[in-house]
Amino acid sequence: MECAVCHSKMVLKKGEIDLRVEGRLYLVQNVLYEECPRCGEKVFSPEVSQMLYEKVKNKEYTEQTINVAVLDGTYG
Ligand SMILES: [Zn+2]
To answer: DSSP code of 20?
Structure first.
């Protein structure tokens, strides 16, 4: 697949990625995705994407509390 942003060839990877669905943040582990080596754009294949949205819809996830570093972007 080609990167939609810079048209480089994307690389298939497996790992952890964050996902927002309807304003809620999800952490997806052990997932296959493609990453652009040039600009860092990450995408799921349509199959993976659909599978993840199905899981969210059917609440097929565990609730865990994690520490997230939050930065305030306010300047000046
Ligand atoms: Zn790119």
So the answer is: E
Q: What is the pLDDT of residues 5-55, one digit of tens each?
A: 999 999 999 999 999 999 999 999 999 999 999 999 999 999 999 999 999
C-alpha 12 to ligand 1 mean position (Å) = 13
Query: pTM score, two decimals?
Result: 0.77
Fold of the CATH domain 11-57: Ubiquitin-like (UB roll) (3.10.20)
Q: Measured between alpha carbons, how far is 74 from 28 in angstroms, rounded to an integer?
A: 29
CA of 33 to the centre of ligand 1 (A): 14
CA of 58 to the centre of ligand 1 (A): 32
Which residues are within 5 Å of ligand 1 (an ion), measured at CB?
3, 5-6, 8, 36, 38-39, 41
How far apart are the C-alpha atoms of 41 and 45, rounded to whole Å? 13
